[in-house]
Amino acid sequence: MTKKKKTLEEAATAEALTQPIAIETATTEDLKIRLEEIKGYNGVIGYILRNATSATIDLKDPTKLIEYAILSSSALDAAEELSEIFNLGDFQNILVEGKDAKILSLTRGENRISIFLEKNADIEKPLKKLAHFEGA
Predict the structure, then answer these.
(1) Could you report the per-residue pLDDT of 59-73, keeping only the tens digit for each?
(2) Residue 6, exposed/middle/buried by CB under 10 A (0-12, 13-18, 19+)?
(3) CB burial readout 92-112, b (16+ within 10 A) else e
(4) What is the pLDDT of residue 4?
(5) Which letter, b or e, does each residue of 22-51 get, where b requires 16 or more Cβ atoms within 10 Å of its Cβ?
(6) Helix H segments across 18-60?
(7) Where does residue 58 rank: exposed (0-12), middle (13-18), buried (19+ CB within 10 A)?
(8) 36: which DSSP letter?
(9) Phi and psi of 123, rounded to 5°?
(10) What is the pLDDT of residues 102-116, one digit of tens each?
């Protein structure tokens, strides 16, 4: 009987160690670190990272927080809706360019990311930095 109890305790411990919450938290923290690095790139205005439980916003001009949040949400929602309407499958990223700036929006797992850039900024560098999060 003691051996059976020990086996059950070991199984419960193994199950607790493999819970997805720990994996998601580590992924989100890793994304935050990557986004902090990206923020230092030439032409990057800032970023928004959000998921079901939290949001991180870092902008050079915090007075435009609401405008950037609305733009971020609208771009991601539009990409998902267009992808569904035209049967395109999951999108990798979406780029919206305006007169003076552009927004690169991505979804990685449950994380929704928007990176705001000046019009002439290179998007390849941020994309490469976030590339290994494809399946996150």
Answers:
(1) 999 999 999 999 999
(2) exposed
(3) ebbebeeeebbbbbbbbeebb
(4) 52
(5) eebeebbeebeebbeebbeeebbbbbbbbb
(6) 20-39
(7) middle
(8) H
(9) -90, -15
(10) 999 998 888 999 999
**In the structure encoding, which two tokens stand for residue 40, read together?**
């230092």
Other CB atoms within 10 Å distance of the CB of residue 83? 14
Residue 134 scores a pLDDT above 60: no
Whole-angstrom distance, CA of residue 136 vs CA of residue 130: 10
- Tokens 């690169």 label which residue? 104
Task: Identify which of 105, 98, 101, 104 has the alpha carbon closest to the alpha carbon of residue 118.
Answer: 101
Task: Give first-to-last CA distance, the chain, whole Å.
Answer: 42
Q: In the predicted model, is pLDDT for residue 51 greater than 80? A: yes
